[in-house]
Write the structure tokens for this entry.
Amino acid sequence: METKALGLKDELKSLVRPIFVEIALVMLLGAVDTVMLSKMDSPIEGGSDNAVAAVGLDNQLINLVILIFQFVSMGTAIVCAQYIGAGLRKKLVQVVGIAIMMNTIVGITMSSILFFYAENILNIMGLRPELMGDGLIYLKITGSMTFFQAISLAFSASLRSAGMAKYPMRVTVIVNILNILGNYSLIFGHFGLPALGVKGAAISTVICRGFSMISLAIIHTKKHIHKYPFEWFKPFPWQELKNILKIGVPAAGEQLSYCLSQVAITYFINKLGNTALSTRTYCANCIMFVNLFCISIVQGGGIVVGHLIGKKHSNAAYLMGNFVHRYALIVTLIVSTCLALAGNSILKFFTNNQEIIHLGTIIFFIDIILGIGRVGNIFATGTLRSTGDAVYPVLIGIIFQWSIAVGVSYLLGITFGFGLIGMWIGFTLDENVRGIILRRRWHSKKWEGKGFVK
């Protein structure tokens, strides 16, 4: 038993490393735009900070759309992991084929909406007139090509579930190098190219996402699923679509609720002024790299738990889940403390605005406490989904994200006048309350028997 446990932990670590690098570099793709735009020369006072604020709001909207794409990918990864554990090859191929088809259709639809209705969306968000020019350019270009990301997510989820996380990681490494070069060339005007500023950052990001989609499609075909026999989809495998949606719809519902609540909060922050919005953007980009430690550990753990559920090893899945939580909590607390201690110096790299630096440093220290709840939240939500128990997390998410994250944040930040710090305290309360409730669900073992392999 001890040897088996050791083998599972080794399997977890072999998955976590490439997932960590891949997620870090995907996050870096957006963060690179923020960093490089903050260094852009502007004839207008505060011009670079304004560009960062506009792009930050755009990226939040694009992340919301990407979460819509992920509802299929999340379901695909979990169902595939269970089928791989059970050795059901035909069902695996059917699930992946359906996932690619669905993400293509949804991706093209959402890309069209972002392109044709970009200005209307930004007006609804209350983007200030002085930020509208940059915000509109960036959203139209990057938004119109988000279907690249939709299709990439389907291939990446399939490869990860099969233990091939190293391939998406390698693609992402190349994409980030290309994005840095593209930004350097198109934002600042090097190598004979024009200095396009925000437009250049958007063009570079789109080209890189297109390259990522094509690369993952080629790798997936060569290394994992070579073909999709037509007869395996005739009649159409509605049960496999149902299985994907059984996980994907609740998972997307929880993520969509969270992202919409953050959009609502961003609307409130926008009312506090450009300084608060810029601070939120800088802090969010830094904290996102703290989160990726937890996310990568939980995603790797989710694949191992899914394999164990497919093999009908519920007790081993429970023990592995507990190890994943401890592992993620320890690592996240260490990293978030380091960020708080180095926060002042890090923020000085982005901006010279002393108000942003002071406010952001305080937020980093509050986020240490927030991180305790966030780890429990991400862990319990991810592992419960891996077992097939996907509905409970979305119900808890919707209730508390809107009552505490939005309600209490508005009360403290706007009504009582504590500004961005008051809002971050509201976020902290939300994450910790949800984390406690969802961890109790995991320890209750009510998820047993909810798997797809009967």
